[in-house]
């Protein structure tokens, strides 16, 4: 699961359906995201693609990018549109697939599927089948489609890995996937359960960009390319939403990829996800690099001391170069302090950086100038306080941003 943050799947699905029922039935209402024909132009749809579409379809457009930059849909394809909405992408896919193709349009919202069925009956191009369902359980047979398109749907799905696995399952080997979706630079790490609307109105459901690419690779997709990126939230009519999006580095991306011949084994997927480099990057994005540095510094200092004591009790003598030992402790203490400093860009609080620098300085002083165990311990206490303070300020800033999203009209 990705960033459920206190919501059940049922709560998320209900929030999504409520929001997009409103987009389907009352597209002229106020929303936190661009809607309608003007929105499709903002995110890159060429007028020659949208002009032939029914007005009712265009007015309920709520995509976040132009997935057709991925060029996945080819003549004669059986195409799946995941999160089809009112059908802008479905009908464009039908134009590209032609009369020998077939488009299956899937959406969770009854009002959207009803609107799309009516529009599809009047359109040309490939025949269209409209299905109400979830991306987490696609009602299609294995290897039954040639290409998949999706626009702004995956960030609304609770279990993204499951949805990506389902896309892999229904695509034939070598099949193509294109999508536009919202990504963020920094993950949401605070509980947002007070208002489920945040899932559909802000960025709570979005995934860190690198994590999203990893999910597709883990599932077995290959030749993954970022074919477009845009500051989607700059066009939001809500100042609060723009501020929330900026706070998390939210934007939309357009991806293209193809399905590999087979999915990696569960063991291979586990080792990919457990990669030290991936875990370290994840901790850095979440502001926990300081925790990791502090843990290693403490282990280098007191863990080594405990190990030496235990070996002595067992009658095993072990010599250790004290200069190297002290250097390792000092190095990790300084790295911990440096890991705290970037937090200033998030919360503008200088206190944690100063406290971390002071803690590292005290440790270095104790190790190389005038050693005293209590002085060294005091340095570690300062360093631990700085790490905890930084995390607290980061979480408070996230809560403030998300509070703005919940309060915006």
TrEMBL record:
GO biological process, one term: methylation
Domain Methyltransferase span(s) in chain numbering: 75-220
UniProt keyword list: Membrane, Methyltransferase, Transferase, Transmembrane, Transmembrane helix
Domain of life: Bacteria
MF annotations from Gene Ontology: mercury ion transmembrane transporter activity; methyltransferase activity
Cleavable signal peptide: none
Alphabetical list of InterPro entries matching this protein: Mercury-R_MerC (IPR004891), Methyltranfer_dom (IPR025714), SAM-dependent_MTases_sf (IPR029063)
Presence of the UniProt keyword ATP-binding in the record: no
Record GO cellular component, one term: membrane
Keyword ATP-binding included in the entry's annotation: no
TM regions (residue ranges): 288-318, 324-341, 353-371, 377-393
Pfam family, one: MerC
UniProt cross-references to PANTHER family, sorted A to Z: 2-METHOXY-6-POLYPRENYL-1,4-BENZOQUINOL METHYLASE, MITOCHONDRIAL (PTHR43591:SF24), METHYLTRANSFERASE (PTHR43591)
Protein name: Type 11 methyltransferase
Organism of origin: Thioalkalivibrio paradoxus ARh 1
Top-level taxonomy: Bacteria, Pseudomonadati, Pseudomonadota, Gammaproteobacteria, Chromatiales
């Amino acid at each position: 699961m990705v960033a459920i943050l206190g919501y059940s799947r049922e709560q998320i699905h209900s929030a999504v359906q409520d929001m997009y029922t409103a987009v389907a039935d009352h597209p002229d209402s106020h929303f936190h995201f661009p809607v309608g024909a003007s929105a499709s132009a903002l995110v890159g749809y060429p007028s020659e693609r949208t002009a032939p579409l029914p007005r009712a379809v265009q007015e309920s457009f709520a995509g976040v990018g132009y997935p057709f930059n991925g060029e996945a849909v080819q003549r004669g394809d059986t195409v799946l549109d995941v999160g089809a909405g009112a059908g802008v992408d479905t009908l464009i896919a039908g134009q590209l697939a032609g009369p020998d193709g077939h488009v299956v349009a899937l959406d969770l919202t009854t009002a959207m599927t009803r609107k799309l069925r009516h529009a599809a009956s009047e359109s040309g191009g490939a025949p269209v089948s409209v299905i109400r369902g979830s991306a987490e359980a696609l009602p299609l047979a294995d290897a039954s489609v040639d290409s998949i398109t999706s626009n702004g749907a995956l960030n609304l799905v609770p279990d993204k890995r499951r949805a990506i696995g389902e896309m892999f399952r229904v695509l034939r080997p070598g099949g193509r996937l294109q999508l536009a979706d919202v990504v963020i630079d920094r993950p949401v790490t605070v509980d947002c359960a007070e208002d489920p609307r945040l899932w559909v109105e802000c960025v709570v459901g979005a995934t860190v960009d690198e994590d999203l690419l990893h999910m597709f690779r883990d599932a077995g997709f290959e030749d993954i390319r970022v074919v477009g990126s845009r500051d989607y939230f700059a066009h939001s009519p809500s100042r609060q939403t723009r501020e929330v999006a900026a706070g998390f580095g939210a934007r939309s991306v357009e991806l293209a990829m193809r399905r590999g011949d087979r999915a990696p084994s569960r063991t291979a997927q586990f080792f990919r996800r457990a990669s030290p480099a991936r875990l370290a990057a994840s901790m850095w994005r979440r502001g926990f690099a300081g925790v990791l540095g502090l843990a290693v510094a403490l282990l280098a200092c007191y863990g080594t001391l405990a190990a030496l004591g235990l070996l002595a009790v067992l009658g095993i003598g072990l010599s250790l170069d004290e200069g190297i030992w002290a250097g390792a402790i000092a190095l990790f203490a300084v790295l911990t302090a440096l890991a705290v400093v970037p937090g200033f860009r998030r919360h503008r609080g200088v206190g944690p950086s100063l406290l971390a620098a002071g803690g590292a300085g005290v440790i270095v002083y104790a190790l190389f100038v005038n050693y005293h165990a209590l002085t060294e311990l005091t340095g570690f206490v300062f360093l631990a306080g700085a790490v905890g303070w930084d995390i607290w300020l980061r979480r408070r800033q996230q809560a403030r941003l998300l509070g703005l999203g919940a309060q915006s009209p």
